[in-house]
Amino acid sequence: MHCFVSPTVSYVHQLQADNVAENACGSDNGGCSHLCLRNPSGYSCACPTGTVLREDGETCNTPPSTYLLFATRSTLARVSLDTPELWDVTLPIPDVRNAIAVDFHWAKQKIYYTDESKCPVIVSFRSVDMHNLSNTYTLISTNLTTPDGLAVDWIADNIYWTDAARKLLEVARLDGSCRKVVIKDGLDEPRALAIFPRKGYLYWTDWGDNPKIERSLLDGSARRTVVGTDLGFPNGLALDYGARRLYWADALRDRIETSDLHGKNRVHLVPEATHPFGLTQYGDHIYWTDWYKKSVERADKTTGKDRIVIRTDLDGVMEIRAVAAGRQAGWTPCAVNNGGCSHLCMFQQQTYDCTCPDVPDDRPCSTGRYKLCITQVVPTKH
């Protein structure tokens, strides 16, 4: 953890020292988890930029409880929403070469990202521990070309991605096992992904010759076009789970739009977004990255007004996510013992499926469709 201290830090825990000439911080860092700072009357515990002290006055809340996570190709960075400064901090994650897409799993305290190095050509999915940023893990590193979209199903513990070059939408378990193609037909240039696990919905953008935003159930069934007109390059995609709204960024039309979950009640929310790429929503705001301005920006999610630039001079800024516990709520039967499934559990609103990976492993695979009224799941094996 890099301990950058804001000039506006409020030192919540200040201890008196009878003899300030002594090294009050020398013994066990004064009891402080991060920074121990001497002052004329004793010493104070302080925290890195964007984090705050807990009620014990000694321990910093790291990582922040709420923050923006974004990729800038060679790095991942965050902007804490816990404090008013909105400063960005580069995360010391090793060997990031060309990060594009990002997402997270709050319960597991993991960050997931795609890394698409061109020289040498190394394409992979990686995870990193939020509390130990040197602890990285490669989930998948084969049969990937341009995985520019990524979405974590935090209830079923599955991860979805798009691959524009291979024209596929795939899924796997969070450790990279049980890989399966969800959609392979009728995709041109699939890009961004957004998932609503509790509703069983998967959304994605396609910025090919016939740009559109599509939706399916989590297994790829019940596929339909949600928005199919007046689109250019639909890039970023975000969901407001509480308000039941869909947001997208269009890099050709230079605007951000919103609709309901079915593509109705469409509104031009931010009509002059220069070249938006990534998009996310949290609280009363939407946040997006802009390629031309090299920035992260914010606006009111309902009116598009009160627009501010949070950070600039971000070369190669790509996808963005709002990381918070409140973004990943809800329950489905897949949350309990993987729904009784041996491999993949996929929720479909009134039912859920146990399904198998495309390439069998050494375990018997359970399959079947189950209604929510079933209290005990005993899948069949073959």
Automatic annotation (TrEMBL):
**Which lineage ranks, top first, belong to the organism behind this chain?**
Eukaryota, Metazoa, Ecdysozoa, Arthropoda, Hexapoda
Look up and give the membrane topology term: Single-pass type I membrane protein
Record protein name field: Uncharacterized protein
SUPFAM superfamilies the UniProt entry points to: EGF/Laminin (SSF57196), YWTD domain (SSF63825)
Alphabetic keyword roster: Cell membrane, EGF-like domain, Membrane, Repeat, Signal
Q: Which Gene3D superfamilies match?
A: Laminin (2.10.25.10), TolB, C-terminal domain (2.120.10.30)
Q: Does the keyword DNA repair apply?
A: no
Q: State the organism named in the record.
A: Timema bartmani
Where's it found, cell-wise?
Answer: Cell membrane
What Pfam family does this protein match (any one)?
A: FXa_inhibition
* InterPro entries, A to Z: 6-blade_b-propeller_TolB-like (IPR011042), Cueball_EGF_LRP_Nidogen (IPR050778), LDLR_classB_rpt (IPR000033)
A cellular-component GO term for this protein: plasma membrane
Cite the repeat ranges for LDL-receptor class B. 157-199, 200-243, 244-285
Q: PROSITE patterns given for it?
A: LDLRB
